[in-house]
Specification:
6 helices; Arc Repressor Mutant, subunit A; Asn/Gln_tRNA_amidoTrase-B-like; 134 residues; 2 domains; carbon-nitrogen ligase activity, with glutamine as amido-N-donor
C-alpha cells in the first residue's frame, strides 16, 4: 500500500471510530449536522496539533497532520467563499433588522442555521462584528 493510501485509510478508521463512539454516547444514529460537526472538530484538532508540532520544530509531524486534514476535508461540505459569506452576512443582517453589536447573536443564529456546516463560524463572527460596529 502506498504511503498516501495508508494515511487515508488510517484517518478514515479514526473518523469512523470517533463517529461510532459519538453514536454510542448519543444513544441514537447521528444526523448529518452531527457528523459534519465531528469532522470539523477533527480538522480543528489536527490544525492545532500541526501548529504545535511546527512550533516544536517537528515539521515532519506537522506535515502529517496537514495531510490528515486534507483527507478529512474531502468529506466535508464546501465552505462558502468570502464573497458568498459576505453576501450571506448582509442578508442575515437585513433579515433580522440588526443595527447594533448587541444584535450579533440574532444575526449569527440565523446565519449558522441557514448555512449549517458551510460557514466558518470564526470568519462569520468577525465579519458580522465588523458590519455591526461600522
Amino acid at each position: 500500500m502506498k504511503s498516501r493510501e495508508k494515511t487515508t485509510v488510517n484517518v478514515l478508521r479514526m473518523i469512523l471510530s470517533d463517529l461510532h463512539n459519538r453514536k454510542i454516547a448519543a444513544g441514537e444514529d447521528l444526523d448529518k449536522e452531527q457528523i459534519v460537526a465531528a469532522l470539523r472538530t477533527a480538522v480543528k484538532q489536527r490544525r492545532e496539533a500541526a501548529e504545535q508540532f511546527s512550533q516544536g520544530g517537528r515539521q515532519d509531524r506537522a506535515e502529517a497532520e496537514l495531510g490528515e486534514i486534507e483527507v478529512i476535508k474531502a468529506y466535508l461540505p464546501k465552505l462558502l467563499e468570502s464573497d458568498e459569506l459576505s453576501a450571506a452576512v448582509d442578508e442575515a443582517i437585513a433579515n433580522t433588522g440588526a443595527s447594533l453589536p448587541s444584535d450579533m447573536g440574532k444575526v449569527m443564529g440565523q446565519l449558522m442555521s441557514r448555512y449549517q456546516g458551510r460557514v466558518d463560524g470564526k470568519l462569520a463572527n468577525a465579519l458580522v462584528r465588523q458590519r455591526l460596529a461600522g
